[in-house]
Amino acid sequence: MVGAIASKTVQVHLNRRCNLACAHCYSASGPRETEELPAPALIRFLGEAANEGYGVAAFSGGEPFLYPDFAAVLEAAKALGLRRLAVTNGTVLTDGRAAALGLLDLVAVSVDGREAVHNRIRRSPTAFARMLKGLDVVRRAGLPFGIAHTVTRDSLPDLPWMAEFAVEQGARILQLHPLGMVGAAKDMEGATEGNLEGAGLDGEILARTWLTALALQADYGERLTIHVDLFNRATLAARPELVVPGDGLEEGNPLLSDILNPLVVMANGDLSPICHAMGPALRFGRLGAEPLPQIARRFRATVLGDLRALCHGLWEEVVADDDGWPYLNWYELLETRAQPQFAS
Ligand code: SF4
């Protein structure tokens, strides 16, 4: 089983257009949203990001397969030597989109649980059935795939079902992402449709998520890799460099990817450090407005100091909390701390 933190990654939110409008959408995407990145500027940016040491381009949205130039962007990313990942709701995958699928190294299909739960959260009575058809297309394309599941208070008892579903469908990875109360999930607090009221996860739920995942990993062994987007407090205490940008890199002239991982490109072109929902005052550039090396210089001179202070302060609090639960959703904590502090 693997916890949070991965390769040096550019997270690209291609668009906010989506055929669905899920209760828990972190980016408040939906059918009426038109925001999307200009493909020529994105392709140039990916080249500059590769020069800064980023090795992975992870695409999401919105629904990435509704981005008109997805295949062209993936072709360019492949030519640059970037590993290419995407997260999709699976409902718009058809054989006509197999060209883009074939250019990916890995695709993750989002599943919220059994059919009734999935359809309720996805706010569509046919979302589960269409997602299953999408999985058929992924299998025919022959590329490795995973199932991405947003863990809620309600879905925790169904994690064994999720693991079995993933294996039955032929997935290699089950990624468990604890629900963060940002985007539409935050706006849904107190609402009834989508049933997310009170869904924010406390330390006990996170610990149960981790331990359930550990037990499932022991059961499934090499048939399924289970990845949990949580940190173990003890690991963080020993390795602050995992979450404090640039920690241990005061000397020399590190690449941007040595200091900042992940680098987030939002659908409006704004560049955000680490997470999608950090405060606007931490955004440090705009795709296409100027070359990345220039943006990176300004980031080092301005935003990096505030970002390090924010992350280091939170890290100190988290590791000092000896009585706290041992597993934590670092990125949700960070966003929750950053949003009011860097609101404008
Ligand atoms: S969570 Fe994914 S599928 Fe649902 S509205 Fe947001 S982008 Fe679309």
Structural class: alpha/beta
Q: How many strands appear in the DSSP assignment?
A: 11
CATH hierarchy: architecture:
Alpha-Beta Barrel
Query: Helical content, roughly?
Result: 25-40%
The protein's oligomeric status is: single chain
The average pLDDT value, as a whole number, equals 90
What's the CATH class, please?
A: Alpha Beta
Describe this structure in words.
This protein has 344 residues and is of the alpha/beta class. It has one domain: Alpha-Beta Barrel (TIM Barrel), CATH 3.20.20.70. Helices cover 39% and strands 14% of the residues. It is built from 13 helices and eleven strands. The strands form two sheets. The protein has a nine-stranded mixed beta sheet, covered by helices on one side. A two-stranded antiparallel sheet has the order 8-11. Helix 3 (98-101) links the parallel strand 3 and strand 4. The termini are far apart. Bound molecules: iron/sulfur cluster (SF4).
How are the SSEs ordered, and which strands pair?
Elements (H helix, E strand, L loop, with lengths): L8 E5 L25 H13 L4 E5 L9 H10 L3 E6 L9 H4 L4 E5 L4 H8 L4 H15 L3 E7 L7 H11 L3 E6 L4 H5 L15 H18 L4 E4 L2 E2 H6 L17 H4 L3 E3 L5 E3 L18 H10 L1 H18 L6 E2 L1 H12 L3
Parallel strand pairs: 1-2, 1-9, 2-3, 3-4, 4-5, 5-6, 6-7
Antiparallel strand pairs: 8-11, 9-10
Bound molecules: iron/sulfur cluster.
